[in-house]
Amino acid sequence: MQDSLASSAHDAPIFAPDAFRLTPFQAELLDKARGFGRRVLALRATKYDREASFPIENFRDMHREGLLAICIPREEGGLGADFATYCLAAAELGRYCGATALSWNMHVCSTLWSGALADDLPMSEAERSAHNARRRMHYRRILDHGAIYAQPFSEGGAAAAGAVAFGTEARPVEGGFRVGGKKIFASLSGAADYYGVLCTERAQGDTASRRNTLYLAIPAAAEGVSVVGDWDPLGMRGTVSRTLLLEDVFVPEQEMLMPHGVYFQAATRWPHMFLTLSPTYMGLAQAAYDFTVAYLRGEMPGTPPVKRRMYPTKQIAVAEMHIALEQTKALWFQAISEARPDPSKEQVLRAYAAQATVMENANAIAAKALRTCGGQAMLKPLALERIYRDSRCGSLMLPWTAEICIDRIGREALYQPGEKD
Ligand SMILES: Cc1cc2nc3c(=O)[nH]c(=O)nc-3n(C[C@H](O)[C@H](O)[C@H](O)COP(=O)(O)OP(=O)(O)OC[C@H]3O[C@@H](n4cnc5c(N)ncnc54)[C@H](O)[C@@H]3O)c2cc1C
User: Fold this and answer.
1) Which residues make beta-bridge pairs with 172?
2) Residue 17 C-alpha to ligand 1 middle, in angstroms?
3) Which residues of the chain have pLDDT under 70?
4) What is the distance between the alpha carbons of residues 372 and 376, in angstroms, rounded to a whole number?
5) How far, CA to CA in Å, does 266 sit from each of 158, 270, 271?
6) Which one, out of 58, 270, 277, 378, has a CA that is 20 to 30 A from the CA of 236?
7) Ligand 1 pocket: which of 401, 406, 412 to mutate (most atoms <8 Å of CB)?
8) Using an 8 Å Cβ cutoff, are 188 and 240 in contact?
């Protein structure tokens, strides 16, 4: 099965290097990501979507290409991409296979959050040196063996939205922790070598607190780890996000991806870390637009060369899609460029606005693409119906669902901290 995007000619950069003032390193990396997406991911996307199977071949290829190590610092052997550069590369991959880009995001965050992001947060000298030694071990697993890390946080309650402490708990014991709990929607389940789990560190007698959130890499092969349930969703089928059970799993201390208390600091002081789910959907928005232009021009591979571009209604629809896409790109680019510790209130509100806009517009553009291209465009061999289904998932993703972003913008725009009525 070959995806119709595989041979699409419409794959200019989403963010042109000169227009968006990208550095030569960024331009080169995005070129590499786009080439890889078109050459490799697009060819396999249909198969993983149909089977709802994990794109393990893509991950093996991404290891060979160095992409599993995109956010590992250069001095440690990785590509050394910073937050914005990673986001731009992920958008390019998202154009060709949403499920691969989204799963890749879960993996990359384990290196980005323990890497560049942790470097921005205060730690004692001893803590930093112990952290650097631990993360080097994670980096080596990825660089030398292509190890894959997942990021299962969600539990089906209010914890993933940041409202309460995680119900999955880590009890300190000699040499490490005993971990118990359940994670739903664990993308990469069954394929990951390590599960980067957020849990509450809690000694006997302590009360559970979000301040004690621990970010631990739990080996998939550890005793007490199992994956249960099935996975047959509307979209993002290749993420294989089944349920992860952790039953009294012993996890050595060296598996800490961040030192004690640092995840809580990151979540409060480096909020753009939660924008990392959005690049995939930025890519899907571009893909839906590109599909429409190629289809209406009669240039979509696998379809007869029938032109539909001469109808004014099609032209208006494409113009509307173009405007929505440019609005989305501009806001999102600004927001990812502002990622830093302790951003201003305005920057945080803009990050929420960018997240909500990308997640909602990706699906709105894909819906308009289907309506405009017509019935033949929704047939399975073409990529558009997959893009449409995948794009529907973005606004549901915690912690920054589109609803939560809107909720926070409304409240935080009208109230200063501490104000009440
Ligand atoms: C394709 C896909 C892959 C995923 N992969 C992962 C993964 O790898 N790891 C992971 O941890 N999770 C993952 N998730 C899970 C995701 O982040 C959500 O946790 C999941 O969709 C929760 O669904 P729910 O119905 O339990 O949400 P609920 O918690 O029931 O929330 C339902 C809706 O209510 C709203 N809501 C919830 N809490 C609040 C609040 N405090 N204030 C205001 N509104 C609120 C939100 O808009 C939310 O969409 C994935 C989801 C999808 C769709």
Assistant:
1) 177
2) 34
3) 1-10
4) 11
5) 19, 5, 7
6) 270
7) 401
8) yes
Query: Ligand 1 atom 23: the closest Cα is on which residue?
Result: 156
CA dihedral 219, 220, 222, 226 (to 10 degrees): 140
**E strands, 324-405, where?**
none
- Give the separation between CA 119 and CA 366, rounded to whole angstroms: 38
CATH topology for 24-147? Butyryl-Coa Dehydrogenase, subunit A; domain 1 (1.10.540)
Can you read off the two tokens belonging to residue 124? 């004692």
State both tokens at 6. 């595989």
User: Which residues approach ligand 1 with their CB closer than 6 A?
Assistant: 106, 151-154, 156, 158, 160-161, 163, 185-187, 236, 239, 241, 393, 396-398, 401, 403-404, 407
Residue with tokens 């971990």: 179
Tens digit of each residue's pLDDT (9 = 90 or more) over 330-355:
999 999 999 999 999 999 999 999 99
* CA–CA gap between residue 384 and residue 296 (Å, rounded): 13
Whole-model pTM over 0.85:
yes
CATH 2.40.110.10 fits 169-265, yes or no: yes
Give the pLDDT of residue 5. Answer: 57
pLDDT value of position 161:
85
Distance in angstroms (rounded) separating the CA atoms of residues 75 and 179: 33
The superfamily CATH assigns to domain 271-414 is: Butyryl-CoA Dehydrogenase, subunit A, domain 3 (1.20.140.10)
Give the pLDDT confidence score for residue 163 in this predicted structure.
Answer: 86
Residue 221 · residue 148 · CB < 8 Å? no
Query: Residue 165 has which token pair?
Result: 């402490």
